[in-house]
Design goal:
Largest sheet: 18 strands, antiparallel, barrel
Low-confidence stretches: none
Shape: globular
Order of helices and strands: HHEEEEEEEEEEEEEEEEEEE
Mean pLDDT: 90
Strand content: over 45%
Length: 416
């Protein structure tokens, strides 16, 4: 057993002994939560002329323990096992040792003075609609951060100051860490969020001048009035980054932005229907000026919520991306929901055709996503989906011989 698991088990035992058996049974100091989720996927996303389908099954198990010794203090520990069934093997006398700490942190409320909360350790971080910071719950592991957060809350506002350690390299000669420093403000009555954070990647690979220094400034507005809902988010990035080519190291000035909006109408009645339209734009770089970098970096968002459920466009391509989206959903029966999304994708800047090296184009393709979800089984949620992707002839090396990409899944989630 690895040392950190011994430490975790020891902490749990100490917590149990500290509060006593009677208080445990009363449930006023210690509480548990958990989830077991199995997702079965059929993957034929590739549009290549020579391809084959893949079928796999992802299992995620989470067990959480919350300990509240006083009204002002709380400790949360969440163990997670994330695995693909049969990888590398099962039914054998071996141990894969997949269990890890997904979250372990403490919170101290009213620290120093009223309204101040300190949170430190390893934790998930979700802000707004998760277009900027998200924990990516769809992923079989999910994203969690290690660092600290200081919150100041009043009825009219909330400010979070955070320092996240993306990477720690204890180099004895010079700093090679990757740190993020940020401020996030929420104004509930205005239904408006504002944020600014700075990314400093000092891992220079022995080239001292080769560092990422990126600032992100933006806002998120969300509103629901009667049957209409609306949200708008914009982010501007600036700073400097090294060009990836070596040995000629070139420091590029960053000037990029992202703009995303969605408006929906909610119908009255038993069907609880909603239709919506959205536009998501991430700027691209045309590559004409080697001293500038104008492609927006989608670094820490919950990608699965945006840009189509097939997750073909989660990475940040240098040519950027334009996503014009239409979606609708309704409830055909009690505890059932069905929906369909349409995505039209284009590049923000022209890219070189994958089928013809002499052609510049911005065309990418169309994706259709269909989903059905049911909570009719008590204690469980069952979700299924089917997606198709029609690639433009230039977005596939096989041109006119390209295939239609398909993908399907069935996911069962049990919370306890």
């Amino acid at each position: 057993m690895k040392m950190y698991r011994i430490v975790v088990c020891g902490l749990i035992c100490l917590a149990v002994m500290a509060i006593g058996a009677e208080e445990i049974l009363a449930g006023d100091k210690l509480s548990f939560d958990g989830q077991v989720r199995l997702r079965n996927e059929y993957d034929l996303k590739s549009t290549d002329a020579f391809r084959h389908s893949e079928v796999f099954h992802d299992l995620r198990t989470r067990i959480g323990l919350k300990f509240e010794p006083t009204d002002e203090t709380m400790v949360y520990i969440q163990l997670q096992d994330s695995r693909r069934l049969g990888d590398p093997s099962s039914g054998e006398l071996t141990s894969t040792n997949n269990v890890d700490l997904h979250q372990v942190y403490f919170e101290i409320s009213d620290a120093v003075f009223e309204g101040v909360t300190i949170k430190a350790g390893r934790f998930e971080l979700n802000y707004g609609n998760q277009r900027m910071f998200g924990s990516v719950g769809w992923h079989n592991a999910g994203r969690s951060w290690e660092g600290g957060l200081l919150s100041y809350r009043k009825e009219q506002f909330r400010f979070d100051f955070f320092n996240l350690h993306k990477m720690e390299i204890n180099d004895e000669d010079y700093n090679r860490d990757f740190d993020i420093f940020g401020l996030y403000g929420k104004f509930p009555k205005l239904q408006f969020d504002m944020f600014a954070f700075y990314e400093s990647n000092a891992d220079t690979n022995f080239f001292v001048q080769e560092q990422l220094k990126r600032f992100n400034i933006g806002g998120y507005y969300h509103r629901k009035h009667e049957n209409i809902d609306f949200n708008l988010q914009a982010v501007f990035q600036f700073g400097e980054k090294p060009r990836d080519s070596l040995p000629d190291v070139v420091i590029q000035d960053i000037s990029a932005f992202m703009f995303a909006t969605e408006a929906g109408y909610n119908f009255e009645g038993k069907c609880k229907a909603r239709i919506a339209a959205g536009f998501d734009y991430s700027s691209g770089d045309d590559g004409k000026d080697s001293t500038k970098y104008e492609a927006y970096t989608n670094a820490y968002y919950t990608g699965h919520k945006f840009r189509g459920y097939m997750d073909k466009f989660i990475p940040s391509e240098s040519y950027g991306l334009v996503d014009i989206m239409l979606r609708g959903k309704f409830s055909p029966a009690k505890k059932w929901t069905a929906g369909a999304d349409f995505h039209y994708f284009k590049a923000a800047e022209d890219y070189t055709s994958l089928a013809d090296d002499s052609t510049q184009t911005s065309d990418i393709g169309i994706e259709l996503d269909f989903t059905v979800a049911s909570k009719s089984i008590k204690g469980a949620t069952v979700t299924g989906g089917f997606s198709v992707f029609f690639a433009d002839e230039h977005y596939s090396p096989y041109g006119d011989d390209r295939k239609v990409g398909t993908w399907a899944y069935l996911m069962t989630t049990v919370n306890f």
